[in-house]
Amino acid sequence: MSRRCVSILGVTFLAALLSAGCATAPKKDYTAFRSENPRSILAVPVVNKSVEVTAADLFLSTLTVPLAERGYYVFPVDVVKHLLDDDGLSDSNLVHSADTRKLCNLFGADSVLYVSIERWDAKYMVLSTQVTVSFDYTLKGCKTGDAIWNNKQTMVYAPQTQNTGHPLGNLIAMAVNAAVTKAAPNYMPLARQANGMVFAYPGPGIPAGPYRPEYLKDDQPAK
Length: 223
Description:
Elements: H1 3-22, H2 31-36, E1 40-43, E2 47-48, H3 55-60, H4 64-69, E3 73-74, H5 77-86, H6 92-97, H7 100-107, E4 111-124, E5 129-141, E6 147-157, H8 167-183, H9 188-199
Parallel strand pairs: 1-3, 1-4, 2-4
Antiparallel strand pairs: 4-5, 5-6
């Protein structure tokens, strides 16, 4: 291939990258969300599709803070879980299949957040361990029981090994790092990062609630 052709291909490839970088994701429709105008959020027990039995309770504990920071009253998750148990809804799958408006009436909530854990695992690859968490979020309004917002988020972490200056030493350090991460993977920072990203606004997240100064203003066009 001639040098001129290579140059043309390089320019074309660069133009494609720039074009892709300038493209913006389609704006999320918040019409249903604004119609419901929730002031409080009931985060119900999480459906766990992973093999880690502790994942659901661990993840549920990470939801309160980011939602409260968005300006919403969030019902205490431990109290919610206890009351649902007393009402015969001890299984998270039963909670997710129950009538949303029944849950709303039980707690006096304006909306209900349902989350399923799609992945919560550590994949061991001899010299590295890749930790992955993936969640599916749906918020339903209490007036209609319909979904008013939904999103998905996946986070991946692979520990980085510091260069020892010796190839064999690097391999040993990588193997040890991978084994340690596999033995005791730290999922919680990834879970918190996933929540921070998925609820962030502007972006894919939820608009500010009534306990933030930008309430009802943050999705208005700039003047």
